[in-house]
Write a structure and sequence with these properties.
The structure is a single chain. The chain has 4 helices and 2 strands; from the N terminus they run ααβαβα. The chain has a two-stranded parallel ribbon. By secondary structure, the protein is mainly alpha-helical. The longest helix is centred in the last third of the chain and has 25 residues.
């Protein structure tokens, strides 16, 4: 995950792990872990939190409200990387057409 985040241009401020017998339907992680992540975001000034697990739209929305930062999952991170790469390829193609 750290390599994917670095590919997207992110700097890792902190890593948080949790093992649960079952995911929380509202936030994926427990309320205590949400509070821990919110505190880490506040102290580090991070503007994005990346989850290495698929999030439902409801979970993402609930986490963003609780953490006060943008929340993305692994799938969104990969899509963002591919989108950026596609944009660079288009720019390079346009540049080659102009020369």
């Amino acid at each position: 995950m750290a390599e994917l985040a670095a590919s997207a241009g992110a700097q890792i401020a902190e890593k948080v792990f949790q093992t649960r017998p079952a995911p929380d339907a509202a936030t994926l992680v427990g309320h205590g872990k949400v509070d821990e992540i919110a505190a880490a975001v506040a102290s580090s000034g991070a503007d994005v939190v990346i989850f290495d697990h698929d999030l439902s739209p409801t979970q993402q929305r609930n986490l963003e409200k609780a953490i006060d930062a943008k929340v993305i999952d692994r799938t969104q991170l990969i899509l963002d990387i591919l989108h950026r790469a596609r944009g660079r390829a288009k720019a390079a193609f346009r540049l080659s057409l102009l020369s």
